[in-house]
Amino acid sequence: MVDQNANLRLQQALELFYFAYRSFTAGPDRILSDKGLGRVHHRVLYFVGRNPRININELLQILGVSKQALNAPLRKLTELGLIDVETAAHDGRVKQLLLSKTGVKLEARLSQTQMQHLAKAFAVGGEQAVKGWELIMREIPRN
Predict the structure, then answer these.
(1) How far are the Cα atoms of 46, 93, 97 from residue 49, in angstroms, in the given order?
(2) In 10 A of CB 10, how many CB atoms?
(3) Contact criterion met (CB below 8 Å) for 65 and 143
(4) Which of 36, 70, 75, 129 has a 20 to 30 Å separation from 5 between CA atoms?
């Protein structure tokens, strides 16, 4: 027998998650669309910014995508001068990625909108709620 209360609670949580995600991504989406970019570009900028000189294979692993899926977004970001590609000193076959000065500014602007969202929610929820949220988010598989 299905617990109707548990099912209803999960449906409500799912709905809250959808609305929160829409709100969380709206600011960056507006900024990105002005440049002809989308969420995949944002993810690349974010993780390259957090991992300067990351090689392409490491980025593929973090993003959980194929080389083919990363190719076009990465090419566009390099063409726009947002990401620089360097040859690794230890191995000429390895390409390392880092944000350009323009890329650093854009990534900071994108992340700032999302950090403001989180800061407001965390202030309302308090420390216990933040810890609970972090616990829950860690339990959702990354794939």
Answers:
(1) 5, 22, 9
(2) 11
(3) no
(4) 129
Task: Give the Cα separation of 97 and 44 in Å (integer).
Answer: 10
Residue (of 105, 32, 34, 101) closest to 73 by Cα position: 32
- Reading the block at residue 107, the tokens are 């990534």
Round to whole Å and give the CA distance between 43 and 45: 5
pLDDT tens profile 31-53: 999 999 999 999 999 999 999 99
Ordered structural domains, the chain, with CATH: 4-139 (1.10.10.10)
With a CB cutoff of 8 Å and minimum separation 6, the contacts of 143 are 64
Phi, psi of 92 (to 5 degrees): -65, -15
User: How far is Cα 133 from Cα 143, in angstroms, rounded to an integer?
Assistant: 19
Give the pTM: 0.90
